[in-house]
Specification:
Elements: H1 3-14, H2 20-32, H3 34-53, H4 61-73
Helix pairs in contact: 1-2, 1-3, 2-3
């Protein structure tokens, strides 16, 4: 698995939506690639922070879209 493939599957991996073999492939790549590991770690921390800080309100759609675009750049 290369970095592009890992990034394409990263959000599914973090959301536990991948099957067993895909999970193994992503985890193997994250163990070998520091850049992708750092990106996954950032995403996990961001998600945890958002879960802790968010109440019942959702961010406006424009803000969510902008954050998604920024996250894809990492």
């Amino acid at each position: 698995m290369n970095c592009n493939e890992a990034v394409e599957k990263l959000w599914q991996y973090l959301d536990r939506e991948l099957d067993g073999e895909a999970v193994v492939e992503v985890e193997r790549h994250l163990q070998e690639c520091r850049e992708c590991f750092s990106r996954a770690e950032f995403e996990q921390r961001l998600r945890a922070l958002l879960r802790r800080s968010c109440g019942c309100e959702q961010a406006p759609a424009a803000l969510r879209d902008r954050l998604h675009r920024l996250l894809r750049m990492f």
